[in-house]
Amino acid sequence: MTAKLSVLKPLFRFSLILMSVFILSRIALLVWQHQRLADGDSLAVLLGGLRVDLSSLGYLLALAVLMLLAHVLLRRKTAFFSMFSLFIAA
After folding, report:
1. Count H helices, E strands: the chain?
2. pLDDT band at 77 (very low <50, low <70, confident <90, very high)
3. Angstrom distance (rounded) from CA 27 to CA 21
4. Contact at 8 Å (CB) between 15 and 72?
5. Between 2-32 and 41-89, two packed helices, what is the crossing angle to 10 degrees?
6. Would you say the C-alpha torsion 2, 54, 18, 59 has a positive or negative sign?
7. Dihedrals φ, ψ of 43, to 5°?
C-alpha cells in the first residue's frame, strides 16, 4: 500500500510548491498595486485569483500525471524487455 502512495508523493509536493508560489506571487502583486485597489477589493482579487490558480494547477498537474504515468509504465516495460532480452541472448 505504501509503495502505491509513494508514486503520488512527487505530485503532492509539486502541487504544494506550485500553489504556494501562485499564492505568494498574488500577494506580492496585491502589495505592489495596492493603490489601484479600492477598500475591500483585496479579498475579491484573492478569491478570484485562487480560482484561476486552481485551474492552472489542474492543467499543470494533468501534464505531470501523464509524465508520471509514462514513467511508471515504461519502467515496467523496460525491466520486462531487458529480462526478456537476457533470456533470448543466453
Report:
1. 2, 0
2. low
3. 10
4. no
5. 150
6. positive
7. -65, -40
Cell of 85: 532480452
Q: Which of 44, 46, 11 is nearest to 25 (CA)?
A: 46
pLDDT band for position 56 (cuts 50, 70, 90): very high
Phi, psi of 9 (to 5 degrees): -60, -40
DSSP string, 18-35: HHHHHHHHHHHHHHHTGG
Residues 35 and 31: their CA atoms lie apart, in Å, by 9
- DSSP H or E run through 3: helix 2-32
Give the span between the Cα atoms of 27 and 45, in whole angstroms. 10
CB 56 within 8 A of CB 22: yes
Which cell numbers hold the place of 62?
A: 494533468
